[in-house]
Amino acid sequence: MLSLDKITTIFCSIDDFCKDFAPNWENQLLSNGKKRIRKSNLSLSEIITIQVLFHISGYRNFKTFYLDYVSKFLTNEFPNLVSYNRMVELKSTSFIPMMIYLKTKGLADCTGISFVDSTPLRVCDKRRIHQNKTFKGFAQRGQCSLGWFYGFKLHIVTNDCGGIIDFMLTPANVHDTSPLKMKGFIKKLYGKLFGDKGYLSKELFQDLFSNGIHLVTKLRKNMKTKLVTPIQDAFYLRKRAIIETIFDQLKNIFQVEHSRNRSQTNYFNNIFSALIAYNFADKKPSLKNNFLDTKQLVLFQ
User: Fold this and answer.
1) CA gyration radius for the chain?
2) 157: DSSP letter
3) How many beta carbons lie within 10 A of that of residue 217, not counting itself?
């Protein structure tokens, strides 16, 4: 199911990061007077790697994946495996390292053509909001094209090769334009950024333009002034559905969204490991191989 080359590639990338990060992180914990993390048979890089492998394994449940696959078929790759209950405890200790690895090593680069959008991450059915205790006071009600939901929003910026440039998690009631107003979210961007009509804002356009980013969106029908959209911009606006394909893969293949939440830490661990796994995927939605549309674009120009 999982090739040895893929496992080795993922582990080596994570292990190189952990060798530099883990010693400084543990020293920081001690200097702040916090309890040191208890030593485990599994290394930090192995703990993170197993979580990432789950999202590309095809399994729908982490417990089944760990007990029926890792514990039986990956004992040579992970010779010091622990019990499932201990593994669940260790997952929570990898929260900060996994987040920092994803932000520093696990994302793609900007190519000058970027797409932005958000998708809802439901933590429970809207009829069970008052019964949900895990995210009480943390998750919020929000609205999307499919109606009201309870949970969070995943905002991502992708390039034309299908790679995720950056992401942000917000409560469900945060407006889609809010992350674009934060310097940390747009620091890697340049060139043109394509979004839907929800990102249409004169102030946002001016702020992004001052940072070297040209925001391109479709105009609303009730707008009096309508500018002529260049052919190239119109082409990429039609191809903005690439980000919807990425969301579909994140939810249906990499399981970034689920309702089996028992703790906040492991919930976000699941999201981080899913995003890491996606960027290790061999095939991503891409506009680079769309030769027919590219030729048509040249003819129009």
Assistant:
1) 21
2) E
3) 21
Closest by CA to 189, choosing from 202, 175, 207, 171, is 207
3-state secondary structure of 11: helix
Residue 246: how many CA atoms within 13 Å on its side-chain side? 33
Quick one: 297 exposed, middle or buried, by C-beta within 10 A (0-12, 13-18, 19+)?
middle
Nearest to 113, CA basis, from 251, 205, 233: 233
Strands 140-144 vs 147-159: parallel, antiparallel or unpaired:
antiparallel
Cβ partners under 8 Å of residue 124, min gap 6: 131, 132, 150, 151, 259, 261
Query: How much is the pLDDT for 292?
Result: 41
**Could you tell me if 165 and 190 are in contact, meaning their C-beta atoms sit under 8 angstroms apart?**
no
Q: In 3D, which of 235, 219, 237, 239 has the Cα closest to residue 227?
A: 219
CA distance 18 to 46: 10
- Dig out the tokens for 253 from the structure: 């293949």
Tokens for 134? 């895990």
Q: Which amino acid is located at 301 in the chain? A: Q
Residue with token string 């994140």 = 250
Walk me through the domains of the chain, giving residue ranges and CATH numbers: 4-104 (no CATH), 113-269+283-294 (3.30.420)
CA distance 4 to 196: 41
153 touches 178 (CB < 8 A): no
Query: Hey, what are 216's tokens?
Result: 């391109």
30 by Cβ neighbours in 10 Å (0-12 / 13-18 / 19+) ranks as: exposed
Q: Give the span between the Cα atoms of 180 and 208, in whole angstroms.
A: 8
Residues 64-108: tens digit of each pLDDT: 999 999 999 999 999 999 999 999 999 988 999 999 999 999 999
**227-238 pLDDT, tens digit each:** 556 788 888 988
Q: If DSSP states are collapsed to H, E and C, what string results for 27-44?
A: HHHHHCCCCCCCCCCCCH
